[in-house]
Write a structure and sequence with these properties.
The protein has 268 residues and is mainly alpha-helical. Helix content is 78%, strand content 0%.
Amino acid sequence: MFGKVGVAFGAGFVLGPAIGGLLGGLDPRLPFWAAAGLSLANAIYGLLILPESLPHDRRSPFRWKSANPIGALHLLRSDRVLAGLSVVNFIAQLAHVVLPSTFVLYATYRYGWDAAAVGFTLATVGICAMVVQGAGIEPIVARLGERGALMLGLACGAAGFLIFGVASTGLLFWLGIPVMSLWGVSGAALQALNTRLVAPEQQGQLQGATNSVQSLSQLLGPFLFTLTFAYFIGRDAPAKLPGAPFLLAGALLLLALVVAVKTLAQSR
């Protein structure tokens, strides 16, 4: 199931920049109006059409105390393994922010790419993500298990960021995209591991808490990576290192890998 969600995300990653670019050529504000309309349509679909997966006797009562990002995080502290995996999720999501926050700046500065080259690269990233999510997760999990898939994904993500950070040409950067795409197996494996640690009536609360962790990382990430990029291309930098944000992201994924190994060792 989580693999199918990843396929949908990859499709959006391909179509979104293309549609946004076309609409932006007509009016700079039009992509934002279109995004707002799609979000509203999605909300209406979820409210009126999407069926509830839990029967009435397994649904948790609504509590305002838990219906907020901070309250939702209490669930993640209820189990030591769940808390550890939440730390892994936070670090991994923080590392992921390097792509939307600095990729365009980095590609323009280092490779001189124009908007077309950037858009084509993003579309390629989305296609690779769709392939991994749609065709790669099931056999990888079947072979390695969810724990092994999590470790493999984090390791491939770190390797991909390393390639991005040291690539002196655009062609070398492209070689890192297939490696980076294998990072996608870790997200599905992590979510599957998490869902086994809470009761059936807490699954929705778990997804809300997970999204809260991701939102927190998305608040911090842009500051971390854009400031790192600005420093290492500035005059006061000890060495010109435009790939520093990607190297930092790779180091974060290695840290997430260490935390995951220690956390899952406790659950055995």
